[in-house]
């Protein structure tokens, strides 16, 4: 029931994703971007889910399309998981340290999209990817999951630590928010907008 497969092929990217939300952590990532593989593997570890992702894209242009489309596919998979079982905890939040970085992350799988990305990094590229593309990743993830996502950098100068800490925090919060409950946690009686 919890294994979700999503394929997305455009003129810019070709992505195949399989997520098993019932299986414990296992990650296989081939995105042609080593740092992004590392970040997605970190996310899977802290969310404690099994993800298999293969993605190729027009890197001769830049990583933008590939990073965005990966976020779209992961967001659609999470949304499909929510639609399979709306009796979930729905909310997740943490304040997570990692070396010099401190990240506050909070999310609501409400069915409504909103991103607050309060991150300031003074480095134009992180892992070969433009710093601004990370915001685009979280925007596409938010829109396709249909969630509220607040990310606030409370401390941190090392760009690698800040971004990795965000992916860790996202994994922890999503794991918590997807936990099954006995009721739909909404006064409307539905999660979806």
Overall mean pLDDT stands at 93
How many H/I helices?
A: 4
The CATH topology is Ribosomal Protein S5, domain 2
Please provide the count of β strands.
10
Percent helix, as a range, is 25-40%
Any idea of the CATH class? Alpha Beta
Overall radius of gyration: 16 Å
User: Regions with pLDDT < 50 over 5+ consecutive residues?
Assistant: none
**Terminal CA distance:** 24 Å
Portion in strands: 25-35%
Shape: globular
Count of the domains: 1
Summarize the SSE layout with pairings.
Blueprint: E1 3-9, E2 13-20, E3 26-30, H1 34-47, E4 50-57, H2 64-84, E5 91-98, E6 101-108, E7 114-118, E8 125-126, E9 129-130, H3 131-145, E10 148-155, H4 159-177
Parallel strand pairs: 3-4, 7-10
Antiparallel strand pairs: 1-2, 2-4, 5-6, 6-10, 8-9
Helix pairs in contact: 1-4, 2-3
Throw out a few tags for this protein.
four-stranded mixed β-sheet; single chain; alpha+beta; Ribosomal Protein S5, domain 2; 193 residues
Please characterize this protein's 3D structure.
- The chain is an alpha+beta fold and 193 residues long.
- It has a single domain (3-177), classed as Ribosomal Protein S5, domain 2 (2-Layer Sandwich), CATH 3.30.230.40.
- The chain contains 4 helices and 10 strands, in the order E-E-E-H-E-H-E-E-E-E-E-H-E-H.
- The protein has helices at residues 34-47, 64-84, 131-145, 159-177, and strands at 3-9, 13-20, 26-30, 50-57, 91-98, 101-108, 114-118, 125-126, 129-130, 148-155.
- The chain has a 4-stranded mixed sheet, with helices on one face. Strands 5-6-10-7 form a 4-stranded mixed sheet, covered by helices on one side.
- Helix 1 runs parallel beside helix 4 (159-177) and helix 2 (64-84) runs parallel beside helix 3.
- The mean pLDDT is 93.
């Amino acid at each position: 029931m919890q294994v979700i497969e999503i394929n997305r092929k455009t003129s810019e990217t070709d992505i195949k994703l399989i997520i098993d939300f019932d299986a414990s952590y296992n990650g296989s990532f081939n995105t042609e971007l080593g740092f992004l593989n590392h970040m997605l593997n970190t996310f899977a570890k802290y969310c404690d889910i099994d993800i298999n992702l293969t993605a190729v894209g027009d890197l001769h242009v830049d990583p933008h399309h590939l990073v965005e489309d990966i976020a779209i596919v992961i967001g659609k998979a999470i949304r499909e998981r929510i639609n399979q079982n709306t009796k979930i905890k729905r909310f997740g939040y943490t304040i997570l340290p990692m070396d010099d970085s401190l990240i506050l992350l909070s999310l609501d799988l409400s069915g409504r999209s909103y991103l607050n990305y309060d991150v300031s990094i003074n480095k134009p590229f992180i892992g070969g990817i433009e710093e601004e593309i990370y915001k685009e990743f979280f925007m596409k993830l938010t829109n396709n999951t249909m969630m509220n996502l607040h990310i606030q950098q409370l401390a941190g100068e090392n760009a690698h630590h800040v971004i990795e800490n965000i992916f860790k925090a996202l994994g922890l919060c999503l794991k918590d928010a997807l936990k099954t409950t006995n009721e739909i946690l909404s006064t409307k009686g539905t999660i979806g907008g």
